[in-house]
Automatic annotation (TrEMBL):
Keywords: 4Fe-4S, Iron, Iron-sulfur, Metal-binding
Organism: Fulvivirga kasyanovii
Domain annotation 4Fe-4S ferredoxin-type: ranges: 231-260
Classification via SUPFAM superfamilies: 4Fe-4S ferredoxins (SSF54862)
Pfam families per UniProt: Fer4_11
CDD domains, alphabetized: PsrB (cd10551)
Record-given protein name: 4Fe-4S dicluster domain-containing protein
Source species, domain of life: Bacteria
Length: 352
């Protein structure tokens, strides 16, 4: 759906807000019809042999890539060394293995390829991390409805931190303005044309809730999304095929789809990236909030938490009894959305 640029008055200023608006059983002709050779048997064995997702996709895409001349251009005598390097790196990256099954060495090689590709394409360096989950960490999030004033600082910070597409005004976070007295997302206003906070209204933020039982993971046909040990639900953009099953399965509207190649001004690219987080994406893949994995796994709060001017957002380790979020869960009346679905979102709401 196309988006339009609108402006929101906030504290007397204007702010941009996005509107969401061949027969497989037929043996190939080999010139041998005697039935005494092994040609046909070999073909049958290949048909009946079970294959992994990795090998299947490799075989399906090999012909396509050869047709585009990727291999030929990498071997061309007229190509420059940089062009050859770039094509070879792109080839290797395309056929890399499933990220979750990679060895540490393979992870390191993948990150190096991504960094070198960016440098070849843009002449500048980026830092891509593959840092894994820390031991004894399970992330959780709490949102204080009493404190949110609808200022949208969290949205802006998220867009910048996570290298989200500017042309479509993609946003992982949405702030809903509701009338006092009830929570009704169908009647909520997500596009503000007035100064906030508005009298008689309150504000609720939604995003990916990093469910303990995420339905998006169950429906992915290629296992491109999964839950990490620290509770963060991630997507491998290289494996995502853009079927959008996960988008349909998510009961919280937490996933976004790239209908076009994301556009980010070079000077605005956040060069501190994580392989499973805010690294630059491509057209036709899903993405979403990752609790700013590039920050949280380095002991920092997500960008939205840090940017919130009213302290409405709280993030921390649920396994740490001394963490602020554990205090909230122990001392406040908290609730989660759509509790009856059994998704167990690690995202709570509360009021003072």
């Amino acid at each position: 759906m196309a988006c339009k640029t609108q402006y929101t008055k906030v504290k007397g200023t204007k702010r941009k807000v996005a509107m969401r608006d061949n027969d497989p059983n037929q043996k190939p002709s080999s010139g041998c019809n005697s039935g005494n050779c092994s040609c046909g048997d070999g073909y049958d064995q290949k048909l009946n042999k079970k294959t992994s997702r990795r090998n299947m996709l490799k075989s399906l895409t090999a012909g396509l890539l050869a047709g585009t001349g990727m291999v030929n251009s990498a071997c061309s005598v007229t190509a420059s060394d940089d062009e050859k390097d770039q094509k070879q790196l792109e080839w290797e990256e395309f056929f890399k293995g499933n990220y979750r099954l990679m060895t540490d060495k393979e992870k390191s090689e993948t990150v190096e390829r991504l960094e070198k590709l960016y440098e070849l394409n843009n002449g500048k360096k980026i830092n891509v991390s593959a840092q894994g989950a820390e031991k004894d960490v399970l992330y959780g999030y709490a949102f204080n409805i009493s404190k949110c004033q609808g200022y949208m600082d969290c949205v802006n910070a998220c867009v910048q931190e996570n290298n989200q597409d500017r042309s479509s005004q993609m946003q992982y976070i949405r702030i809903h303005e509701m009338e006092n007295g009830r929570i009704n997302f169908e009647d909520a206003e997500d596009n503000f044309f007035h100064e906030v906070p508005a009298e008689g209204h309150f504000y609720m933020g939604t995003q990916c809730y990093h469910c303990e039982n995420p339905p998006c993971v169950d429906v992915c046909p290629v296992e491109a999304t999964w839950k990490e040990k620290d509770g963060i639900v991630v997507i491998d953009y290289d494996w995502c095929i853009g079927c959008r099953y996960c988008m349909a399965a998510c009961p919280y509207d937490g996933r976004r789809f790239n209908w076009a190649t994301p556009e980010i001004p070079e000077e605005e690219v956040n060069k501190n990236q994580h392989y499973l987080g805010n690294r630059l994406r491509k057209k036709g893949v899903m993405e979403k909030c990752t609790f700013c994995i590039q920050r949280s796994r380095n002991g920092k709060n997500p960008a939205c938490v840090e940017a919130c001017p009213t302290g409405a957002r709280i993030f921390g380790n649920l396994l740490d009894p001394d963490s602020e979020i554990r205090w909230v869960l122990a001392n406040k009346k908290v609730f989660r959305l759509k509790e009856d679905l059994g998704t167990e979102p690690k995202f709570w709401y509360f009021m003072d």
